[in-house]
Write a structure and sequence with these properties.
The complex is a heterodimer.
Chain A (H helix, E strand, L loop, with lengths): L5 H65 L7 H14 L3 E8 L11 E7 L8 H7 L8 E4 L7 E7 L7 E8 L14 E6 L2 E6 L17 E5 L8 E5 L4 H4 L2 H91 L5 H28 L7 E4 H18 L3 E3 L8 E4 L1 H19 L8 E9 L2 E8 L27 H11 L3 E6 L5 E8 L3 H8 L1
Parallel strand pairs in A: 11-13
Antiparallel strand pairs in A: 1-2, 1-5, 3-4, 4-5, 6-7, 6-9, 8-9, 10-12, 13-14, 14-16, 15-16
Helix pairs in contact in A: 1-2, 1-5, 5-6, 5-8, 5-9, 7-8, 8-9
Chain B lengths: L6 E4 L3 H13 L4 E4 L2 H6 L8 E5 L7 H10 L6 E5 L4 H9 L4 E4 L4 H28 L4 H11 L4 H8 L3 H15 L4 H11 L8
Parallel strand pairs in B: 1-2, 1-3, 3-4, 4-5
The complex binds adenosine-5'-triphosphate and magnesium ion (MG).
Protein name (chain B): Response regulator
Keywords (chain B): Coiled coil, DNA-binding, Phosphoprotein, Transcription, Transcription regulation
Pfam families (chain B): GerE (PF00196), Response_reg (PF00072)
């Protein structure tokens, strides 16, 4: 899998954010458009429904009055019926035909249904008496039936079986359904249908071109309600087809998309700038840290060289001083013995005196050598030994990790303060850690552990360097601090003597011991920095 | 003067021990040498008071640590520290802990003998102080008062007046003092009275 780089990821995230924003805006505006449309449709639908219901109710009224007329005499007064029907047709142009049918089955009636009288407007159609009779065959006298199947397109018929006892007569109205809506201000968007059962009688599509239509899965705002007349089970449906332009107004949409894109790009730039600034800051801090460590290393290395040289010289001086002391004292003793004994020739005394002079001369040379190497005086200050140990650990860690040695710094005493030269003290800890590391190196991987901890106890501070090495041999123990004593192939044997003389400069000492659980432990004991020293340091 | 006290030489280097012993013996000084401090410390209670010549840097315990141990055991015999290094810090600490002198190796004969003589004198005076104090401890309160006044140069009459006793009684006290302190000399009285104000002792 390819993991995109950080800037690419950021760009992707920003683009996504923009898409989400625009989508949210779209959803919101669609929703409000749909809601608005729904309200509109509902209002329109209600007023239309009221009107159409009233008109439909008029058909029932006409049927009732015609039926009363038809039943007034027997046989029915066809002429009067025609007259009334003509009037109705004139005033109600949506009623295109009025027919009176005779139905079979009644006493003295013909066997087939027949049209007794028919009044038609120019657009009215002739009624098929047989189909109509069949349609109302099972209905009770006085009932009204809506017949859509047999009617021409866009029309329906209302057939009323007259409530005479035989049920031989029926009145039929033909209604142009479309004219039910006539005279009504219809908005351009309105799509109207009037249906009965699953049969559509009229369908009036929206009159205006809408442009591209909204996706079909969106809810279509519509109004649907059955007409008020129970005899005319007609369902009125008003629908508002939505156009894309209705849903999302292009102007605000474009403005929003552009503005949000601009903001996002701006945010992206800002983030990028912040990121770069942070990177630069981190890099600078890292470089500074590296420089600090390098400088520290260099200082320690320099001090090590200087002090190792000094320790070497003083080691040599010490070694030479001993025989020189013997030589001088012996010569002086011999000189005294010779002086007391008259038998000793004076030449011997002269030789002895010369020995004394040479021994003193050698001693002077050693003194000068010592003076030369001890010319760098320590610069003591109040030091927090925890920080000091931490610094040494930071320097040693890389090397120790390479050798799979674990360096452990358990939380030490709080603020173990000592009056020491920090660089020299670091050298001491460094040497002890190095020795410990050398000692554990022969152990198996998991067992190579060096623990450095600090302690404050009874007016003293301690730094303990413990290891899990093989410990110090019985015969090595008394010689540890002897200059040039080493059991290592490449050891100078100056590490511990140097540590000792450095620690002694600050009034401390070093104790070496084997740990009961194995390994060696070196403890540097230093006096706790006194109150006034601390105050001095605080100034 | 009583016979010269011994010198206890502690140094881990055999050649140095031998040479210094030889040199000191030519001066008629009795020397006992030890390779390490512990050997010296173990027999400390049985030894005659003497002067300790101590090498500063030795394995096991350093000279400074040994000096501290001596003090801890109440032994205030004079200590002369000898070192191979011209170590100023150690020197300062040694003096603080009561060292008489601090010499660097190789040790010069002259300096060594002078330091030893100074040490002997210190030992002597501290021993005398201890003796004086032992003597004074035997006096009664009244005798001590009388001794005090004598050492200030008062006459018998003046003492009697000051203490409100008869001159004869004062004479009796004087006789007792002479007997207890083993001297009739006023000068000795003065010396002893002064010793009372000082601290000291030679006992380890
Ligand atoms: N932690 C330890 N465990 C066991 N032995 C040790 C330990 N530290 C020191 N030693 C022994 O003490 C000897 C002296 O140590 P010292 O540091 O003086 O010299 P070195 O390490 O041999 O050489 P260098 O001068 O390079 O430090 C070592 O050779 C080793 O035998
Ligand atoms: Mg070492």
């Amino acid at each position: 899998m390819i993991v995109p780089s950080r800037p690419a990821r950021t760009t992707l995230a920003l683009v996504l954010a923009w898409v989400v924003l625009v989508a949210a805006f779209t959803a919101l505006s669609v929703r409000s458009a749909v809601d608005r449309a729904a309200v509109e449709v509902d209002a329109m639908g209600r007023s239309l429904h009221r009107l159409v219901s009233q008109r439909a109710a008029q058909h029932d009224a006409h049927l009732t009055s015609l039926s009363a007329l038809a039943l007034a005499t027997r046989p029915p007064p066809l002429h009067e019926i025609d007259q009334v029907a003509a009037t109705i047709l004139r005033f109600y142009p949506r009623i295109t035909a009025v027919d009176l049918l005779s139905l079979p089955g009644g006493a003295g009636a013909p066997d087939a249904p027949a049209v007794l009288t028919s009044t038609r407007s120019p657009t009215g159609n002739a009624v098929d008496p047989i189909a109509t009779a069949t349609a109302i065959a099972g209905t009770a006298p006085g009932a009204t039936t809506l017949i859509a199947t047999d009617a021409p397109v866009g029309r329906y018929r209302l057939a009323k079986k007259l409530p005479d006892s035989e049920g031989r007569l029926a009145l039929v109205l033909e209604i142009d359904a479309q004219q039910l809506f006539d005279g009504e201000e219809r908005p351009v968007w309105a799509a109207l249908t009037l249906s009965t059962g699953d049969r559509t009688i009229v369908a009036l599509p929206a009159t205006a071109g809408l442009g591209p239509a909204a996706p079909s899965w969106l809810p279509r705002p519509h109004f649907e309600k059955a007409l008020g007349s129970p005899n005319q089970p007609l369902l009125l449906r008003l629908e508002r087809p939505l156009a894309l332009a209705d849903l999302v107004a292009p102007g605000p949409f474009a403005t929003f998309a552009f503005a949000s894109a601009a903001i996002i790009v701006l945010a992206g730039l800002l983030m990028r700038q912040r990121h770069m600034a942070k990177r630069a800051r981190l890099a600078a801090a890292e470089a500074q840290q590296r420089a600090r460590i390098r400088e520290h290393e260099a200082r320690l290395a320099h001090a090590s060289r200087v002090n190792a040289m000094g320790e070497m010289a003083s080691g040599i001086a010490h070694e030479l001083t001993q025989p020189l002391t013997a030589l001088l004292s012996q010569s002086q003793a011999a000189l005294r013995l010779a002086a007391a004994d008259a038998a000793v020739p004076s030449a011997v005394a002269e030789v002895l005196a010369a020995n004394v002079r040479q021994a003193k001369r050698a001693a002077d040379i050693l003194t000068r050598l010592r003076a030369y190497v001890s010319r760098t005086p320590p610069r003591p200050a109040v030091c927090d030994l925890n920080a000091l140990v931490g610094d040494v650990a930071a320097l040693a860690r890389i090397d120790l990790e390479r050798r799979s040695i674990i360096l452990d710094l358990p939380a030490g005493a709080p603020a173990p303060l000592a009056w020491v030269d920090p660089v020299q003290m670091e050298q001491v800890v460094h040497n002890l850690v190095r020795n410990a590391a050398d000692a554990v190196e022969t152990r198996p991987m998991g067992d190579r552990r060096v623990v450095v901890k600090t302690e404050v106890r009874g007016g003293e501070t301690r730094i303990t360097v413990a290891d899990t090495g093989c410990g110090i041999a019985e015969d090595v123990l008394p010689r540890l601090f002897e200059p040039f004593f080493s059991t290592k192939a490449d050891g100078m044997g100056l590490g511990l003597p140097l540590c000792q003389s450095l620690v002694e400069r600050f009034g401390g000492h070093i104790v070496a011991a084997n740990r009961p659980e194995g390994g060696a432990q070196f403890t540097v004991v230093l006096p706790l920095a006194s109150g006034e020293r601390r105050a001095e340091a605080a100034e | 003067m009583s016979p010269q006290p011994p010198v206890y030489l502690v140094d881990d280097d055999e050649a140095v021990r031998d040479a210094l012993s030889l040199l000191l013996r030519t001066y008629g000084i009795e020397v006992e040498s030890f390779a390490e401090p512990c050997a010296f410390l173990t027999g400390l209670d049985r030894r005659k008071p003497g002067c300790i010549l101590l090498d500063l840097r030795m394995p096991a315990i350093s000279g400074l640590q040994m000096q501290e141990r001596l003090l801890a055991r109440g032994c205030n015999w004079p200590v002369i520290l000898v070192t191979g290094h011209g170590d100023v810090h150690a020197c300062r600490r040694a003096f603080k802990a009561g060292a008489v002198d601090f010499l660097t190796k190789p040790v010069d004969e002259q300096a060594l003998i002078e330091a030893l003589h100074a040490a002997f004198r210190a030992l002597q005076s501290s021993r005398e102080r201890a003796e004086a104090q032992a003597l004074l401890a035997r006096l009664t309160e009244r005798e001590r008062e009388v001794l005090d006044m004598i050492s200030r140069g008062w006459s018998t009459k003046e003492i009697a007046g000051a203490l409100g006793i008869s001159p004869r009684t004062v004479d009796t006290h004087r006789a007792n003092l002479a007997e207890k302190l083993g001297t009739t000399s006023v000068a000795e009285f003065v010396r002893l009275a002064l010793a009372r104000d000082e601290r000291g002792g030679t006992a380890p």
